[in-house]
Amino acid sequence: MQNPYDVRYYSGAGALTRSGLLAKVAGLLAFSMAFTALGGLVGVRAPGLALPAMIGVLILSFVVSLARNVGGLNLILMYTLTALMGVALGGIIDVYLRVGAGALVVEAGATTALLTLGLSAYALTTKRDLSGIGSKLLFALLGLIAASVVGIFVHATILEIAIGLGGSVIFSLYLVYEVQQARFVEDTLPNAIIVAIGIYLSIINLFLSLLRLLTGVQASRD
Q1: How far is CA 103 from the centre of its chain?
Q2: 73-98 vs 189-221: helix crossing angle, rounded to 10
Q3: 137-140, long-range: CB within 8 Å, 24+ apart, which pairs?
Q4: What distance, in Å, lies between the first and last C-alpha atoms of the chain?
Q5: Res 6 pLDDT > 60
Q6: Does the pLDDT of residue 5 top 70, yes or no?
Q7: Which residue stretches of the chain are H helix?
Q8: Could you give the CA distance from residue 52 to residue 83 in angstroms, rounded to a whole number?
Q9: Cβ-proximal residues to 89 (8 Å cutoff; 6+ apart), any chain
Q10: Which pTM was predicted?
Q11: What is the SS3 assignment for 9?
Q12: Reduced to 3 states, what is the DSSP secondary structure of residue 72?
């Protein structure tokens, strides 16, 4: 089974140096976060749109991987995905704000930012080849999804903590894996889009996992 955001590693003369792809990925991520922020404003004002937006994100996650080589459309799909993710996040954040748990959102966001910087620095400097962990992470992700489905029906604080912790570890590893791809894959816009979306989704899911973990820990103390 293959991750739809895997890209083929470039075996040319510049394979062991940082390619120009890094600049493209950084730019795409910056615009993606801007679209997410705008979507978040909509989501906070209309939290009922969170579920439809998340469904749209799931659909577009697969569609954009199929349309990666369709110029123009790939960018439209990417920014639509990130805007919808912002709407979904806005709805989630609104729930926390309504119950007076905004501090957990801030803590999860700050921790995500610190981890993203640290893990990205490691991925950009390490000499260790992480290209082989993609398939292992995918199976770990499927296990996490299965546990999350169980969590819908079994409301146990310890399960919430376990799912949050497991997700935090898995998406931290995904982030390192995706960032390292930007060092070694061929410098093309389709590759940049796929790598950027992979990194973006890893960051967002890391934030959501940390938020779930912190919520579970808080509940265990009450």
Answers
A1: 21
A2: 10
A3: 137/3, 137/170, 137/173, 137/174, 137/177, 138/1, 138/2, 138/3, 139/1, 140/166, 140/170
A4: 42
A5: no
A6: no
A7: 21-45, 50-66, 73-98, 102-125, 134-153, 157-184, 189-221
A8: 13
A9: 36, 39, 40, 43, 204
A10: 0.89
A11: strand
A12: coil
Contacts 24+ apart (CB under 8 A), 218-221: 218/101, 218/104, 219/157, 219/160, 220/157, 220/158, 220/161
Burial class (CB in 10 A: 0-12, 13-18, 19+), 66: exposed
Residue 143 and residue 200 in contact, taking contact as beta carbons nearer than 8 Å: no
Contact 198, 178 (CB under 8 A): yes
Tokens 């996490």 belong to which residue?
144
* Secondary structure (3-state) at 202: helix
Q: Taking Cα atoms as reference points, which of 7, 36, 12 lies closest to residue 24?
A: 7
Q: Give the pLDDT score at 7.
A: 52
Q: What are φ and ψ of residue 206, in 5° steps?
A: -65, -45
pLDDT at 20: 79
